[in-house]
Predict the 3D structure of the following.
Amino acid sequence: MNSNRREFLGTALAGATFLGASRLPAAAQQETIKVGILHSLSGTMAISETTLKDVMLMLIEEQNKKGGLLGKKLEAVVVDPASNWPLFAEKARELITKDKVAATFGCWTSVSRKSVLPVFKELNNILFYPVQYEGEESERNVFYTGAAPNQQAIPAVDYLAKEEKVERWVLAGTDYVYPRTTNKILEAYLKSKGVKPEDILINYTPFGHSDWQTIVSDIKKFGSAGKKTAVVSTINGDANVPFYKELGNQGIKATDIPVVAFSVGEEELAGIDTKPLVGHLAAWNYFQSIKTPENEAFIKQWQAFTKNPKRVTNDPMEAHVVGFNMWVKAVEKVKSTDPDKVIDALPGIEAPNLTGGISKMLPNHHITKPVFIGEIKDDGQFDVVWKTDGLVPGDAWSKELDGSKDLVGDWVEKKCGNFNVKTGKCGAA
Amino acid sequence: MSFLHRLKHALVILVALVAASVASIAQTTDEAFKRLAADSYSDTSRAIEMLVASAHPNAAQIVEALGDGRLLAGPSDVVVKTTAGGFVDARTGQALGAAPDGLKPVRLNNAVRRAVQAALGGLGLLNPDPAKRIAAAEAVFKSRDAGLLPVVEAAIGRETDPPALKALRQAQAAILIARPDAQPLDRLAAVEVLYERGDQDALATLRALPGDATPALREAQAKAIAAIEGRLRLWAIVQNLWYGLSLGSVLLLAAIGLAITFGVMGVINMAHGEMVMLGAYTTFVVQELIRANAPGLFDWSLAIALPAAFIVAGAVGIAIERGVIRFLYGRPLETLLATWGISLILQQAVRTAFGPTNREVGAPAFMSGAFELGGLAITYNRLWIIVFAALVFAALLAILKLTPMGLQMRAVTQNRRMASAMGIRTGRIDALTFGLGSGVAGLAGVALSQIDNVSPNLGQSYIIDSFMVVVFGGVGNLWGTLVGAMTLGVANKLLEPYAGAVLGKIALLVCIILFIQKRPRGLFALKGRAVEA
């Protein structure tokens, strides 16, 4: 008995040594390229950002199946900044100095991006930022794969004015930088189109606001002025759910007062009964329901990866897919992961997006994107009712605001993020 | 030419004429069906108009199916999917065994939906059911489709049901007032009808008066608008009070468990919000089980979830008390840190078990929608939450005042050593009290799942408000919690229309800070020896 066990142990050990031996030298030989993933996996933002971590892991696994990059395997380094803005900067520093990542994919909120910005500049590394944001920024070390305001907000307003004949506007948002800047841009844009100030109502609510009774009844009141009214919502994340519930309960239908939202995607709708919301709108650069071979393959791959046949996809995920493929192409082009070389190579790189077009990285570090307006369906998906003819190039600096309309970001010729075309100098002043 | 020959000739012409008129109906419907299959919103809208104009016998059924997304169209066939799941050929009305291949549902956008509503309004005015007629008249009122005026007027002539007649007259008024070619007197009468209706929709219709109006009409319009606005302003105050009451009831629900654990026991329980969250997740699990096993019971899901949530949250509460807090009595700072740690652990545990995304908790039928009371729109979910909060409050008060356990709880909190000397097992009472407070938080979770997101962060958003209510109302006093919650709710909602949601909340916090400076023990301070203990 005793000897038997020892024998067995011996065999097992030998087996283990053999396995280990066959693997170890390979690992030692094969240096990996590390890719940082900087998304909150706990705290308030976990609801949105966990998905992005998963999609990055899937992309990296896929790339490794194709043979890696420059003959090396990619290795994901996942850190959890826990929805804590200063921690984002610490974790970014850790990724770059300790783990020596070649590039980082991460951040969701603008404040987290602003928090890591000095770190990426100081340590000269690359950040891919996948979420729609307020614009007014173009940094050498950051590549913005989400939508700038002219790729989401402005086309949405145009759609409402043209197709729904909207004349009165409620700009409702959560009280932080993205809604405030976007609403400032939209207000200037609407006024330039001849909308009177009394036909615009701007309203801000705190994060996680859940009692929408007063605001919804205000909107109802504002909408009873005899002109077609719409709500442009920059309300963040899951505060939308009680907002929509209140709209449904107070009987505001999309045919009366449509709501177009910039932060409501398939993920947000997954936690809500969408029947009362049918017809309300969202503007994005990607919808899961868009039928292209690329998208169908992606959805299949994602659902297999997450082992959940009902798992939905959304816009920031697509932004990561496009950003990751662009980074891979740039690295292959310069045959190096050196941040300086990759940063210089990225503008001009093209990668297919999932909706049938080819997105291109622009000199201002934003990308070209198609814009879609989708209507909420009763199954929580969107039905595309309108789209732009081609791809819209992202403007780093809004043309609607006085302070920024003369600025352009150009990291290819001018080597400057805020070049003033009027004065011909680099710098905002 | 023989007579016979002439007759034959005439017959041929007659047949040709009849055939032509039949053919023209068939042609318009054909054209409409072709447009339905074109997958273009403007074609679909046009097709709806053509169908209504064609007087096709199935028009109402087709348009209704289109509005529900049950209309399938292809190059050769248009098929209605019935609500029972069968298929009907739209053209002939014959039942089909299965839908032909290659058909796609006709898509809708808001413009198409409006066209459907307007068409159903016109078609539904002749429905035998008065409720349907009222709904149809309401649809006409909103669409103000001038083409429907003859239908509306015909319907008014036939109408016998007074509420339906009123709705029809309002629909007629809405059309007339916007029509420059209508009789001036009719338009003046229309203003009067709208004034009597007196709600926001009437206001919108009045304001949409075209620029051609005569001075007399303008004057009447201005007067009616001013009168309606005055009336609505009064209602707005009532409405704000109601919203305040509703917010107060939510605050009361969230805080009342804390009034026990913090107020009565003096434990600073930072994990209180997580008990609320556990209650909400219990509701989710109960609903999932009901959906999977007994869908017929869905309307009872909340009632079933109540005891389950109480037990789950209460059991977790007792476990926390026995496992951690009992070692920390009399050390508030350590209790605060430990319970805060527990709250993080619970949040992450739920996140791992259920995923980080929100979970959908459905609303039973009796909690959806709203009803009008005068100028006040009251949503059912808020109404039931107010009722529920009142019931929970009454039950808790009864437990504390009337039951032996309540007596022992009060005895232990007032003088622990004396109670112990009288033979009360203080440790057991501590655990039960904490369990009761946590269980009540679980009940609050069931209610909050109806109005807020069921996510791991649910509790966090209520913990600060809960402490605010308990401290403001006076620690250790349930009535204080009630008054505190209602005061904060009403004050918040009265401030919100003027200051906005963000500034309103800040103003309220400043007021509370000033109040606590003046009365550190809150609204209803406990007096006597217990305070010193």
User: Anything to note?
Assistant: Chain A touches chain B through 56 residues (CB under 8 Å).
